[in-house]
Amino acid sequence: MANLFEQNRNYVLGDPELELLGDRTKLAQWRHKGMGPAFYRLGRKIIYRGADLNAWAEANRVDPGAEGRA
């Protein structure tokens, strides 16, 4: 799997790389609904680990060619 995010980096809201997933509003909706990638809440600060972002992206990967294969 190719990593979309740096494994050992922490990402905070406002980092342009997070826009691959969606804007701040979309990420806030996912957190509220218990969806999306794992995150840390430190006071009012939201932190995403690169390893968690990559794991979430891989878990949500769709391979259209694999649908019809058995």
TrEMBL record:
GO terms (molecular function) for this protein are: DNA binding
What name does this protein carry?
A: DNA-binding protein
Organism per entry: Roseovarius faecimaris
Keywords on record? DNA-binding
Keyword DNA-binding in annotation: yes
